[in-house]
Amino acid sequence: NRKLNDIPGFESRLRNMPDPITARKSIWLPFMKEKLEVDERTIIIGHSSGACAAIRYAEENKVAGIVLVGAYKSDLGDVNEAESGYFRDPWQWDKVKENCKWIVQFGSTDDPFLPWDEQKAVADGLSADLRKYEDRGHFMEGTFPELIKTIQDHLKSFS
Q1: Active-site positions?
Q2: In whole angstroms, what is the distance from residue 51 CA to residue 84 CA?
Q3: What are the distances in angstroms from CA 146 to CA 38, 75, 150?
Q4: Per-residue model confidence as pLDDT tens for the chain (159 residues)
Q5: Greatest pairwise CA separation for the chain in angstroms
Q6: CB-based contacts of 128, cutoff 8 Å, min separation 6
Q7: What angle do CA 116, 99, 159 make, to 5 degrees?
């Protein structure tokens, strides 16, 4: 977040999300709209459950773009993931594409939680600019220079 806020003309709003364990769609999406004030000039950066939230949010709302990190399309047979509510309805990939100017996805084949085919299916459904890695796991490192560069590159479209 600190590095993102060092980008001229960019403000990153990193907040503790409510309901962090189950990450319920019914709680997170209203929080994004009402508290984070996500709108058509917003770039949503979502990691893991946050990536699912970003996609579901963009099904119904226009945003500037979305950056997905560790995105997946099913509950993976996990009870907690199923309870989140993101996987009950079919994904509306076309609506997301209509509501976003651009979509970038970061994924890693060695992610210990997400099979590559899950990540690839999201990228295919969204026609995302997929940045594939083989050694980043679930992207839990403290630094992510590729993310900073992606934001910088896409901010040029606001000029």
Answers
A1: 48, 111, 138
A2: 13
A3: 23, 27, 6
A4: 678 888 888 888 888 899 999 999 999 999 999 999 999 999 999 999 999 999 999 999 999 999 999 999 999 999 999 999 999 999 999 999 999 999 999 999 999 999 999 999 999 999 999 999 999 999 999 889 999 999 999 988 765
A5: 44
A6: 68, 103, 104, 105, 122
A7: 100
Quick check: 111 and 137 in contact, CB under 8 A? Answer: yes
Measuring CA to CA, which residue among 152, 86, 150 is closest to residue 122? Answer: 86
Tokens of residue 146, six digits: 């590729």
User: Can you read off the two tokens belonging to residue 102?
Assistant: 């651009």
